Input
Amino acid sequence: MVLWPKRSASAGILAQILREEIALTHEALDAHLVTQAASLLRYALVDVGALSPRDDGWAGFNLWLDRFLRSQSDEISQLLNPFCRWDVTARTRLMIRRNGLTDGTFDRARGICRSAQRFLAHLHAQNIALLDAPQSVLDYYLQDHPRERESLRNFLRWAAESGHATRITPVPAKWADPSTSYPMHTYREWMNRFETEESIPLRARICGLIAGTTGRPSSTTAKLTRSMIDDTGERMTIQIGRSPFQLRNPLPALIRRQLDEPRRWDTQSDWLFPSKLRAAHTPITAASSTTCRSWAAASSRCEEQRW
Output
């Protein structure tokens, strides 16, 4: 502790705050040149109540967006700015409201912004305006950059709907092909059954609803533990990865029933689905056929909620 103030970059920033060289605000820490040390210090200041909590995910994305847009030329920024600030931001909020905040939420948003910038830069290099760009330009671009197809779809759809692109047809969604996923009426039928039918085993209902809501694989669902669940009585969140998300009804009630059920074996472990084997979770191969079908049907939900 004696050596920490001399060695730590965070301690140096704290000293600047105490000397009133920088303000004790989130904005001042955002603008600091030593970003990692400022971020670590921010967490400590929030923990002790010196700074008010804030949504770091959104704050970080908005800071990145400011730097990203400032670095673009005026020709590209005229189109990129409204797309990123309005369309991408609105769709990101919709995704969070539907699925909760996941590890890849803002990575996906940044990837879509970068993909739109690369396509606009390609047009600018060829001296072609987006409004006048023919379909052949997009086809040749995707032929040379096939990985851009998914992330570029949102920008092309926005450009077509807003009148910025009149000669380009947006890339069709992958789920438009019936062979890529279950039809939506099949997905909704299964989800309704998992929500309402008491004849389906409780474990199958829980796994089916988690898979259909989050798109998580069966290997992840089978390894859920009590410590991953935060239940306040009014709402329940589950931690998969680094970011928790809130569960919608009737999942909280079903999980509470699962936790309250008496166990005939493995009464000491933390597994949500304990196995007969000591200190092990229920193996995936032991899942019922109903649960397996639910995990497969969940693929359509994942496709629907992509951008």
User: Anything to note?
Assistant: The radius of gyration is 24 Å. Confidence is low (pLDDT under 50) at residues 176-180, 284-307. Strands lie at 229-231, 236-240, 243-246. The longest helix spans residues 74-99.
